[in-house]
Amino acid sequence: MSATIDSTVERILGGDIRSLARAITAVENAGDERGELLKRLFPLSGKATLVGVTGAPGAGKSTLVDRLAAAWRQRGESVGIIAVDPTSPFSGGAILGDRIRMQGHTGDSGIFIRSMATRGSLGGLARATSDVASVLDAAGRNIVLIETVGVGQDEVDIARLADVTLVLLVPGMGDDVQTIKAGIMEIADIFVINKADHPGADRLNQEIRAMLSISPRADNWTPPIVHTVASQGAGSDELLAAIDQYMEFQQAGGLAERRRVKHWRDRLLAVLRERLLERVVTDFLGNGILDEYATRVAARQTDPYSVVEEIIGKIDLRPEEDPSRRFRRLRRLKSVQSAESAAWSVGLNYAIDHVGIAVRSLEASLPLYRDHLRMEMAGIEEVAGEKVRVAMLATGESRIELLEATAEDSPIARFIARRGEGLHHLALRVDNLTATVEKLKAAGVRLVNSEPQIGAGGRFYVFVHPQSAGGVLLELVEESPKGV
Q: For the whole model, what pTM was predicted?
């Protein structure tokens, strides 16, 4: 993994566009290499100017971004564009409307355009926007333009991320009250009246000035109002001059550093919130526990606040420990939970968890399942102990796992050498792996590993030898809290 990350970072710094695109995909999809990649690239970032562009749908954001990118290119700057688009209800990806308007930059290696789906995030940005901006920054892009999705008055997240925020308005899109609404109007560092050749531009200018006169900013900056006709390229030079002026204002007053500190404070809280929620859901709410809690709350047997306090009380933030100790502690925890929850008292129940398929290359095999069959990919993870990369694809209540060897002595490599690509194992999910293993041992069943080990997703597993399973390698897995 480390050598692969080193190679990727080296190619990105060398200007390789494909490596940059793959790195951004890994960041968006929260793949196994995401964390290490961001750790390596982050120290190289911090040099780019992040320019946010927001406004209502139809304001001309994409066209203006296109013109600004061209203007910066004339100055000799390299530009990265993050166009946040609505999420497709069918594929879950971005509807690439913004790229359609930016086709004129095709072939210019100095401009990199990436569309991102919101994937349910509010505030006009995608969840990974900040991380993708850092990747583009580290890749040497001097300017990173971030265009929000265009949903209206609640698009304020961009102000927390961008060094300068442009708010686009157009004449005739609303009455006077629209210009004094809280939210998007308060985050503007520069107002842009686009389509300024339309009737009503002067009136809109007056309304903005009236609003600014009654709501001065705490930093004593008065946002300028720039008129543009983006479709004709008019006003681009004036807008760039206004951006330069604001950046100089921030530097002179020390505002830029304070703004960056505030951004990373907010970003740290967001990442912490995301990771803690992910850990709570994975570690303490699996195996139907959340549904049981919800059933009890719906029946008024308890209240949601007591449930949350109970869950928080079980959170253990101790560092990782030896897997065998961790497994024994998990069993003790579950023994305690069985007295509190019927979910742990069901005994030995089985369900098909996943089917493992050995493949020579994940990249070559994934398109069928992910793109053509539209299976949702949970991510790609490397299991060092098994010397394998695993791509997990959801199929209803179960999943398919594609397994790619990372070393010649990997079990998957040996399997492919003997039999070629194909079905490698069938996995059953059990409620109580310890009890299942003891029962099988007592019956004389041959096990590949007699003690539970930790595999993909942080789950405990034991393999039953094919000689005892009718010629099929059988895996028994149990959901297991990662931090327990």
A: 0.60
